[in-house]
Amino acid sequence: MKIQPSDKRELLKAAMGKIPCDLAVTNVRYVNVFTGEVYPATVYVHQGFVIHVEEKEPAKELNLAKQVVDGENNFLIPGFIDAHIHIESSMLTPRNFARAVIPRGTTTVVTDPHEITNVFGEDAVRYMHDAGYGLPMRQFIDIPSCVPAVPGLEQAGAVMDADAVDRLAKLPNIIGLAEVMDFIGVIEGEDRMMDIIEVAEKNGLYIQGHMPGANGRMISAYLIGGPSTCHETRETEEAIAKLRAGIHVDARESSITKNMAAILEGVRDHTFHDHLSFCTDDREADDILYIGHMDEVVRQAVKNGMNGIAAVKCATLNTAKEIHFENLGAVAPGYAADMLLVDNLADFNVKSVFYMGQLVAKDGKLVADIQDKPAEMESRFSMNVPKLSLDDFRLKAPTTGETIKANVLTYYSGDLSTTKAVTEEVSVKGGYVDISNDPNLCYAMIINRYGTGNYTFGLVRDFGLKKGANGSTVSHDCHNLSIVFKDPESGFAVYNALVECGGGMACADNGEITGLLKLQVGGLMSIDRPEQVAEQSDKMKKALNNLGLPQKNPLLRIATMALPVIPEAKFSDLGLVDVMAKKLIPIFPQ
Amino acid sequence: MKIQPSDKRELLKAAMGKIPCDLAVTNVRYVNVFTGEVYPATVYVHQGFVIHVEEKEPAKELNLAKQVVDGENNFLIPGFIDAHIHIESSMLTPRNFARAVIPRGTTTVVTDPHEITNVFGEDAVRYMHDAGYGLPMRQFIDIPSCVPAVPGLEQAGAVMDADAVDRLAKLPNIIGLAEVMDFIGVIEGEDRMMDIIEVAEKNGLYIQGHMPGANGRMISAYLIGGPSTCHETRETEEAIAKLRAGIHVDARESSITKNMAAILEGVRDHTFHDHLSFCTDDREADDILYIGHMDEVVRQAVKNGMNGIAAVKCATLNTAKEIHFENLGAVAPGYAADMLLVDNLADFNVKSVFYMGQLVAKDGKLVADIQDKPAEMESRFSMNVPKLSLDDFRLKAPTTGETIKANVLTYYSGDLSTTKAVTEEVSVKGGYVDISNDPNLCYAMIINRYGTGNYTFGLVRDFGLKKGANGSTVSHDCHNLSIVFKDPESGFAVYNALVECGGGMACADNGEITGLLKLQVGGLMSIDRPEQVAEQSDKMKKALNNLGLPQKNPLLRIATMALPVIPEAKFSDLGLVDVMAKKLIPIFPQ
């Protein structure tokens, strides 16, 4: 595929010097991602495209440009491409996300609107597509492939099938099928995934993979099934195995998961890195604002021993090829004029950002104009939860005794998202489970918010909460309302607050709200600006720390509770899920 | 694009070891073109595709294969891909060409049927497509883009326009638009080339380039115009400039033109070689049989300082990406099982060739069965020339004097194909030009063979012929009948012989035929087997040497005479062409 110019003949004239071009960026150390060289050059741009790169100092030719920018001896590199991100994870709308990442040098992202599609289905893909269209950056969309992630064991707001993929594939900025998480469905050749992949391929989409921890014949089968990429690579050996098999590996540096070091450890000595790219997957607003986006990922690559030019190539040209674009990812004739000036190839301080030949950010500040563009979906109500009373937040025990056997969802540790179901005896008082004397045991509710009326009420151990309640509509992948609480009053308060504000994250203590982060757009994204969201998020983190959650970033701790693609047991709105056996198990076994 | 398996689910089952696969090749040094590594492995194949590569010695798993081949510690590499060839130049039909190149390790070629399309038009593309289909190798077709090469200054047997491209693009093995030779047409944005390129892109074809000697802004404009590759790179500086600009450079080693050394001289120190591939362009049957095809090109790369693994990548994976194929060019899960066993990575002696998992050649011998498949085009008459008598072979001089001013087509040297028009005084006797006392001057005729009835009669200097006549229907690009002769009787004999046999190459002395190579298929290809054509070609070369042509390979000397894309002047069936001015000039100026 190609980014198409509006008038190819105008570009040809400008390239041949018959008409003046729009822009010349001169006095730069030009980084050539095709050859690996760096040399002085002047880059000429017209109508959004690079039309010529002149190696010699073109004193005479500069009058062929209407505007001349002095690159001040900075390095000129292509704009960064994020190979895989869920914009929703920034808690920003597509337009506000753009405001945050553009100054960091990101000119293209490939976003998977998997989260909001679990809430609003096909409409959500169209919303993300339209909201991200016409911005001073490129937001390509991959169509979510696995909604719901685990059919039959959880209920999302929508079901995506091959027909939906076929319809959506026609939108101009749709380029791929997003992370095919149903790994088993692929390697077993199950109908759902085979049909979706077939339709995607028929529409010319590339197939983005997702296979954490895979090895050997599973990797082979997955590749045969269709996916060609993977951003779920945590171990060195895994990186080696995937690259050897031909998978395009997207080394991930998300807000939570940092995989660069382990991956580079394995592939540093490889002669060829054509199939290595970078991505962020999930990155929160404050991380983007205070630490960075793709600029930070590239920094991490260099810190972990990669040559700076090679790192630039991984973050640009390699990714363009991964997503099948022929004129992206390089600063070369015919390519979209997405380019950065950076002060060096280790720290990558981004001085200027050009998107389609326009200066869109300078010295860390957005200079492009991004208008707000309200959309119906940004005020669509997504809290279709059952009406619950305070009494519903007391866990009835089906026994007349003083204890009862319960399957308790138990975290392996405070750092890990893996959980298992452990059968234990818990206290019962007056017909209700009593956790008051067990500091590491909490109540947990997963409340369907898509109008089915059902919810799960169980117990969770070693979640980290010591008092009060924590609730969130950001609860991968179905994003039902999850609440963990020590006392019913606090749980009920969180429930009420989140229903009232249209979704988000909340915490309470002694029945009073102590923190609220409103995410009105599908219960996932705020309509506020990046700086505001970052500040609210910061407050929320502190409020959660006050309730005992020890993580530096405790916001998504709760989102690991109802994610039945992660071993070994998880909650869903339908009950307690044995992930490995793919079945529901009772909260109170006989 | 992908080579599609007939049943993906069967491959998945085989990959997972649930059913036995067709083949295991064990005990090999596996060359990984993704990472640049070499390690011991066993490759499993099912229904034509690689389903798994096992790194550890899989003693136990071997029983999962119906057939086990011992690789005898040879290197296992992907089958070679020729990025650009005109099969017609081998003088073999597509099926006979396959018989010749498969034992050399070529499993895929991208052929441009430019030559025969100049003769028979759209029908010819369909013939080449169908004749090359279903063989134990893959013959992809790029649609000829410039037929005729120089409209208005020469007349071919057909005109290819955007509509023809649109129709042909639907054939399954059509993958690209072939060498866009009308360089000026592209950079000037002329309608013919813009329309053809637009239709090709709309049909998902890649655009193959052709820009000898280009530099600077011309390269930039050409890239903007659409073409992304080039196999016409002779100089070191040119190679550097093209690769820096993002062009995919196909280093060529044809029978006549050897560009590998000059190209590698420039790019050896580049860090990345993603955009470097190899091709042969034109390679005659005897060269293929006695010296080699892509195996020889890869040998030349190593001889010129390239690492053997990198050379393999250039001849396989890089080319697959150049032509937009996702599962070709590597031996990896999901990829077409095209693979070679070679004894080392310098000489590349090809021990075994597997195409789609089938052993097709062993120890230099074809073992696959290739049935003859006669086609109507193979006996279609292409010699629609005007009826000429012996007297027509005497050059009338429009003067009553003893000399006349003539524009003589003059070769720069015996090695070069460049020619210029030089005005000189030539002898006249009895109203006819007399060259008998001028050993380096010859008569030349270009006779239209597509029914227009016209022909050009002129003079050529320093062609090399010392006596007799040389005629050929292989006369790029229009392939009209070209005859160079010292005496009218020999010229007439050659004319008669070639008309009678349906085209080919002939020479005569003293009015008697001394050599004849019948090329009945469009006057370009023989219907004989490779060994026979090589032998006939050898005899023809000797016969031409006997007439004074000094070249080691004199067959195509005559084909440089009527090629009005090469500077500075050439003949065509319409007259003497000033190539630079794009106009006809008179043979006898006033």
Would you mind describing this structure in some detail?
The structure is a homodimer of 590-residue chains. Chain A has 590 residues and is an alpha/beta fold. In chain A, 25% of the residues lie in helices and 27% in strands. In chain A, strands 1, 2, 3, 4, 5, 14, 15, 16 and 17 form a 9-stranded mixed beta sheet that branches. A 9-stranded mixed beta sheet of chain A has the order 20-19-18-22-21-24-23-25-26, sandwiched between helices. A 5-stranded parallel beta sheet of chain A has the order 6-7-8-9-10. In chain A, helix 3 packs across helix 4. The longest helix of chain A is centred in the C-terminal third of the chain and has 17 residues. Chain A is elongated. The mean pLDDT of chain A is 96.
Report the sheet with the most strands of chain A, covering strand number, pairing sense and barrel closure.
9 strands, mixed
Structure annotation, total helices of chain A = 16
Percent of residues in β-strands of chain A? 25-35%
Number of DSSP-assigned strands of chain A: 29
The residue fraction in helices of chain A comes out at: 10-25%
